[in-house]
Amino acid sequence: MLAPMHARPLLSVRLNRTEARFRPGEAVSGYLHLDAGSDCQADSLEIAFEWVAHSSTGRHTQRVATRQLDGGSWAKGAHTEFPFAFVVPCGPASYTDPLITVEWQISARGAVDWTEDVVSTAPIEVLPPRDATIQGWNLGPTHVATPSLPRRSRGPLSTLGMVLMGVALLGVVLALGTPSPTAAATLLLGATGLSVLGLAALWQAHRNALATQKTGEVRVSPRTLTAAPGQPLWPRSRSPYSAISRSTTST
């Protein structure tokens, strides 16, 4: 007889500080709350302190510290808390740039056999130090541009535009073969709307292609930069791509 399968535990990361804003050297503390709504099990538990960099074409996660916990089984109704504390390092600061965003978080993961891992996160904000002369400040991930790109296949916007134009053409054909004037007018009106949307999508795809040829694709590089003495600690002030908006980057 097969043993009964256990349900997944419910995890939630909870911080001790209501305002989740921290500066270098401060401690981020809290606890991982495990709630067993029914008999459940996890092979292992992990709590990580990490920052995630997002760009229009990529994502990079950098773990600063982790804490490994033993897994186990919990009976229905069990509530368990695992405390944690991490020290905020010297950067990078949380920020949003036109081409890249850096976000900090405490993430918890429970490994469970035969199913997806259980994941819970709590976002925090890391501020620059009050002392602007701090040594070794991490400016965060760099932007990597590729000025010359090989010819790319159609992107999602151009594909969408062509599909809309094709459906609009089909609507016109159906309207021409419809004996009812009312139905024909309705089909033509719908075809007109779809053709406008299709042209707009194709135009935006064309603009994105021109921007890519001019600036190259901007990707997140795992290599980070360190601020020199007297250099601004905010990445947006030294980013050579800050003037380029997301609307003109490659899809």
The helix count comes to 2
Helix/sheet category? alpha+beta
Q: What is the CATH architecture descriptor of the largest domain? A: Sandwich
| Percent of residues in β-strands | 35-45%
Oligomer: single chain
List keywords for this structure.
251 residues; alpha+beta; 2 domains; six-stranded mixed β-sheet; 40% strand; disordered C terminus
Lay out the secondary structure:
Layout: E1 10-15, E2 21-22, E3 27-35, E4 40-55, E5 59-74, E6 79-87, E7 95-96, E8 100-111, E9 118-126, E10 138-146, H1 156-176, H2 181-215, E11 217-226
Parallel strand pairs: 2-9
Antiparallel strand pairs: 1-3, 3-6, 4-5, 4-8, 7-8, 8-9, 10-11
Helix pairs in contact: 1-2
Report on this model:
With 251 residues, the chain is α+β, with helices and mostly antiparallel strands. It folds into two domains: 10-139, Immunoglobulin-like, CATH 2.60.40.640; 156-215. It is built from two helices and eleven strands, in the order ββββββββββααβ. It has helices spanning 156-176, 181-215, and strands at 10-15, 21-22, 27-35, 40-55, 59-74, 79-87, 95-96, 100-111, 118-126, 138-146, 217-226. The strands form three sheets. Strands 2, 4, 5, 7, 8 and 9 form a six-stranded mixed sheet that branches. β4 and β5 form a beta hairpin. α1 packs antiparallel against α2. Residues 1-5 and 236-251 have low confidence and may be disordered.
